[in-house]
Amino acid sequence: MNTQQLMDQALALAGLTEMPQDCGICVEGNNIKKVLMGVDMDTAELMLAKELGYDLVVTHHPRNTNIDMLKVMDRHILKLEELGVPRNKSQKLLGERKDELSYGQHVSNSRRSVSAAKLLNMPFMSLHTPADIISERVVQEFLDKKFAGKPETTVQEIVDALEEIPEYKNSARKPVIRAGGKESYAGKIYVLMSGLTGPGAEVTKAYFEAGVGTLILMHIPEKDAKAVKEQKIGNVVVAGHMSSDSIGLNAIAKKWAESGVEATMMSGIVE
């Protein structure tokens, strides 16, 4: 297997036909049999992989240099449209969040780990959105099945159910309620784990205004959680960052294993 074939398998598993801007094959590789995979992989991990004889390093969080990475956030426009929110409205709300994030992106050292991989001649690729989509789908399907026909489901019941999923059960950081109470009615449960990063308080509010009762997120900043509490229109359950990422990454590694590629998981991945 080569890096492009592995990328294609990951995209297909997520239902994607094109590579999102937060993914990339930073250094190409062929005849890959052993992969070192983690949530955050940088120069130290690249050197470790070289020392241990791995053929490829895979990072979840992006290490590529695509200046259009923030376009991945447009996924929120499509998801909100499915919930009945007009594109023009969500586009404007999302634009403010993109502007906020652009400041950090502009000053980031985007070539740090890529340059190290090239010097080490170590194949290197990043897989972000595909893993997030898979995690989102797995958790949504699990909760839909778990609470089908149960309109009185509470937020605490969601938290308890999430811990039945191995990655949450085995994580050091368990799912927590960030907005709402244990006895709050869940309403419509909506899992939101793709779209590059958190969409910000205003976009989060748009999900609730579109009929969502409880959002299941990987993470949320304190200021956004505070805003949801003040709005008094929805609940937020944070399932966990590393554990949620792990669901999609483990699924991708399992798919690769069918092609004879063995992945060793590290750097935040919960098995």
Secondary structure topology:
Layout: H1 3-13, E1 24-27, E2 34-38, H2 43-52, E3 56-59, H3 75-82, H4 87-107, H5 112-120, E4 124-126, H6 129-146, H7 155-162, H8 166-169, E5 176-179, E6 189-192, H9 201-209, E7 214-217, H10 222-231, E8 235-238, H11 241-257, E9 262-266
Parallel strand pairs: 2-3, 2-9, 3-4, 6-7, 7-8
Antiparallel strand pairs: 1-4, 5-8
How is the largest sheet built, in terms of strand order? 1-4-3-2-9
Count of DSSP strands: 9
Content-based structural category: alpha/beta
Instruction: Give me the Rg, rounded.
Output: 19 Å
The share of residues in extended strands comes to 5-15%
Can you summarize the main beta sheet?
A: 5 strands, mixed
What percent of the residues sit in helical stretches (DSSP H or I)? 40-55%
Kindly report the average pLDDT value: 96
Q: What is the succession of H and E elements? A: HEEHEHHHEHHHEEHEHEHE
Shape: globular
Alpha-carbon distance between the termini? 24 Å
Tell me the number of helical segments per DSSP (H or I, 4 or more residues long).
11
> Which regions contain 5 or more consecutive residues with pLDDT less than 50?
none
Structure in words:
The protein has 271 residues and is α/β, with parallel strands linked by helices. It is built from eleven helices and nine strands. The protein has a five-stranded mixed beta sheet, sandwiched between helices. A four-stranded mixed beta sheet has the order 5-8-7-6. Strand 6, helix 9 and strand 7 form a beta-alpha-beta unit. Helix 2 (43-52) runs parallel beside helix 5 (112-120), helix 3 (75-82) runs antiparallel to helix 4 and helix 6 crosses helix 11 (241-257). The chain is globular, with a radius of gyration of 19 Å. The two termini are 24 Å apart.
